[in-house]
Amino acid sequence: MKKSTILVFVAVYLLFSISGFLFPFDADWYTSLSKPDWTPDGSVIGMIWAILFGFIALSTAIVYQKRGFNRHNSEYISLLGINYILNQAFSYLQFNLHALFATFMDAMFIAITTLILIFLAGRQNRVAGWLLVPYFLWTSFATYLSWLIYSMN
Predict the structure, then answer these.
(1) Of the candidates 78, 110, 73, which has an alpha carbon nearest to the alpha carbon of residue 91?
(2) CATH code of the domain covering residue 67
(3) Which of 1, 17, 6, 96 is nearest to 49 (CA)?
(4) How far is it, in rounded angstroms, from Cα 7 to Cα 128?
(5) Are 134 and 52 contacting, i.e. CB atoms less than 8 angstroms apart?
(6) Where in the sequence is the domain holding 94, given as residue range(s)?
(7) What's the pTM?
(8) TM segments (predicted)?
(9) How many independent structural domains does the chain possess?
(10) Tens-place pLDDT, residues 26-59
Protein backbone atom coordinates (compact mmCIF):
# COMPACT_ATOMS: atom_id res chain seq x y z
CA MET A 1 0.00 0.00 0.00
CA LYS A 2 1.32 3.42 -0.98
CA LYS A 3 1.97 6.09 1.66
CA SER A 4 -0.43 8.39 -0.16
CA THR A 5 -3.21 5.80 0.24
CA ILE A 6 -2.61 5.71 3.99
CA LEU A 7 -2.68 9.52 4.06
CA VAL A 8 -6.02 9.49 2.22
CA PHE A 9 -7.43 7.05 4.80
CA VAL A 10 -6.24 9.18 7.74
CA ALA A 11 -7.37 12.47 6.16
CA VAL A 12 -10.87 11.19 5.36
CA TYR A 13 -11.26 9.64 8.82
CA LEU A 14 -10.19 12.85 10.55
CA LEU A 15 -12.33 15.06 8.32
CA PHE A 16 -15.47 13.01 8.94
CA SER A 17 -14.92 12.87 12.69
CA ILE A 18 -14.23 16.59 13.11
CA SER A 19 -17.89 17.52 13.65
CA GLY A 20 -17.78 15.84 17.04
CA PHE A 21 -15.19 18.40 18.08
CA LEU A 22 -16.65 21.40 16.24
CA PHE A 23 -20.25 20.80 17.30
CA PRO A 24 -20.21 19.09 20.69
CA PHE A 25 -23.11 16.95 21.85
CA ASP A 26 -25.62 19.06 23.81
CA ALA A 27 -26.56 16.38 26.33
CA ASP A 28 -29.00 18.49 28.36
CA TRP A 29 -31.01 19.55 25.35
CA TYR A 30 -30.94 16.11 23.69
CA THR A 31 -31.97 14.35 26.92
CA SER A 32 -34.93 16.70 27.28
CA LEU A 33 -36.36 15.65 23.91
CA SER A 34 -39.10 13.06 23.60
CA LYS A 35 -37.64 10.05 21.79
CA PRO A 36 -38.72 6.49 21.03
CA ASP A 37 -37.87 4.05 23.84
CA TRP A 38 -35.53 2.13 21.54
CA THR A 39 -33.33 5.17 20.76
CA PRO A 40 -29.68 4.11 21.13
CA ASP A 41 -27.63 5.65 23.92
CA GLY A 42 -25.31 8.49 22.90
CA SER A 43 -22.19 6.44 23.65
CA VAL A 44 -23.41 3.67 21.34
CA ILE A 45 -24.12 6.20 18.61
CA GLY A 46 -20.60 7.64 18.98
CA MET A 47 -19.04 4.19 18.77
CA ILE A 48 -21.02 3.34 15.65
CA TRP A 49 -19.96 6.58 13.97
CA ALA A 50 -16.30 5.90 14.79
CA ILE A 51 -16.56 2.54 13.02
CA LEU A 52 -18.49 3.98 10.08
CA PHE A 53 -15.92 6.74 9.59
CA GLY A 54 -13.32 3.97 9.31
CA PHE A 55 -15.39 2.23 6.63
CA ILE A 56 -15.86 5.50 4.71
CA ALA A 57 -12.13 6.24 4.92
CA LEU A 58 -11.17 2.71 3.84
CA SER A 59 -13.60 2.79 0.92
CA THR A 60 -12.18 6.12 -0.22
CA ALA A 61 -8.60 4.86 0.18
CA ILE A 62 -9.43 1.83 -1.99
CA VAL A 63 -10.96 4.07 -4.67
CA TYR A 64 -7.87 6.29 -4.49
CA GLN A 65 -5.48 3.33 -4.69
CA LYS A 66 -7.31 1.98 -7.74
CA ARG A 67 -7.26 5.16 -9.83
CA GLY A 68 -6.03 8.12 -7.80
CA PHE A 69 -8.18 11.22 -7.60
CA ASN A 70 -8.73 12.19 -11.22
CA ARG A 71 -11.39 12.43 -13.91
CA HIS A 72 -12.03 8.66 -13.73
CA ASN A 73 -13.58 8.97 -10.28
CA SER A 74 -14.50 12.66 -10.11
CA GLU A 75 -18.19 11.76 -9.60
CA TYR A 76 -17.26 9.74 -6.51
CA ILE A 77 -15.00 12.46 -5.10
CA SER A 78 -17.56 15.23 -5.77
CA LEU A 79 -20.41 13.29 -4.20
CA LEU A 80 -18.22 12.29 -1.25
CA GLY A 81 -17.56 16.00 -0.70
CA ILE A 82 -21.30 16.74 -0.72
CA ASN A 83 -21.93 13.80 1.61
CA TYR A 84 -19.18 15.08 3.91
CA ILE A 85 -20.74 18.55 4.11
CA LEU A 86 -24.16 17.03 4.83
CA ASN A 87 -22.62 14.76 7.47
CA GLN A 88 -20.96 17.71 9.22
CA ALA A 89 -24.14 19.77 8.98
CA PHE A 90 -26.13 17.09 10.84
CA SER A 91 -24.42 17.75 14.18
CA TYR A 92 -24.58 21.51 13.69
CA LEU A 93 -28.28 21.46 12.81
CA GLN A 94 -29.19 19.15 15.66
CA PHE A 95 -26.96 20.22 18.52
CA ASN A 96 -26.32 23.91 17.79
CA LEU A 97 -29.44 25.10 16.00
CA HIS A 98 -31.81 22.51 17.53
CA ALA A 99 -33.50 22.42 14.11
CA LEU A 100 -35.18 19.03 14.19
CA PHE A 101 -36.90 19.16 10.80
CA ALA A 102 -33.72 20.38 9.09
CA THR A 103 -31.85 17.56 10.86
CA PHE A 104 -34.33 15.04 9.44
CA MET A 105 -33.95 16.46 5.92
CA ASP A 106 -30.18 16.46 6.23
CA ALA A 107 -30.18 12.82 7.39
CA MET A 108 -32.35 11.88 4.41
CA PHE A 109 -29.94 13.55 1.98
CA ILE A 110 -26.99 11.82 3.67
CA ALA A 111 -28.71 8.45 3.13
CA ILE A 112 -29.52 9.24 -0.51
CA THR A 113 -26.00 10.41 -1.33
CA THR A 114 -24.57 7.39 0.48
CA LEU A 115 -26.66 5.04 -1.65
CA ILE A 116 -25.29 6.68 -4.79
CA LEU A 117 -21.75 6.53 -3.35
CA ILE A 118 -22.15 2.77 -2.92
CA PHE A 119 -22.72 2.38 -6.65
CA LEU A 120 -19.98 4.82 -7.65
CA ALA A 121 -17.41 3.18 -5.36
CA GLY A 122 -18.59 -0.27 -6.43
CA ARG A 123 -17.79 0.57 -10.06
CA GLN A 124 -14.19 1.15 -8.96
CA ASN A 125 -13.95 -1.81 -6.58
CA ARG A 126 -16.65 -4.10 -5.15
CA VAL A 127 -15.17 -4.04 -1.65
CA ALA A 128 -15.12 -0.22 -1.69
CA GLY A 129 -18.84 -0.25 -2.47
CA TRP A 130 -19.73 -2.85 0.15
CA LEU A 131 -17.82 -0.92 2.83
CA LEU A 132 -20.38 1.87 2.48
CA VAL A 133 -23.44 -0.36 2.98
CA PRO A 134 -23.33 -0.11 6.82
CA TYR A 135 -23.12 3.70 6.46
CA PHE A 136 -26.25 3.65 4.28
CA LEU A 137 -28.10 1.39 6.72
CA TRP A 138 -27.16 3.56 9.69
CA THR A 139 -28.06 6.83 7.96
CA SER A 140 -31.39 5.32 6.87
CA PHE A 141 -32.03 4.41 10.50
CA ALA A 142 -30.92 7.91 11.58
CA THR A 143 -33.34 9.42 9.07
CA TYR A 144 -36.24 7.44 10.51
CA LEU A 145 -35.21 8.24 14.08
CA SER A 146 -34.80 11.94 13.22
CA TRP A 147 -38.30 11.99 11.76
CA LEU A 148 -39.73 10.40 14.89
CA ILE A 149 -37.90 12.81 17.18
CA TYR A 150 -39.11 15.74 15.09
CA SER A 151 -42.68 14.39 15.16
CA MET A 152 -42.63 13.78 18.91
CA ASN A 153 -41.35 17.26 19.72
Answers:
(1) 110
(2) 1.20.1260
(3) 17
(4) 17
(5) yes
(6) 3-32+39-152
(7) 0.92
(8) 44-64, 76-93, 99-120, 127-150
(9) 1
(10) 788 989 999 999 999 988 998 999 999 999 999 9
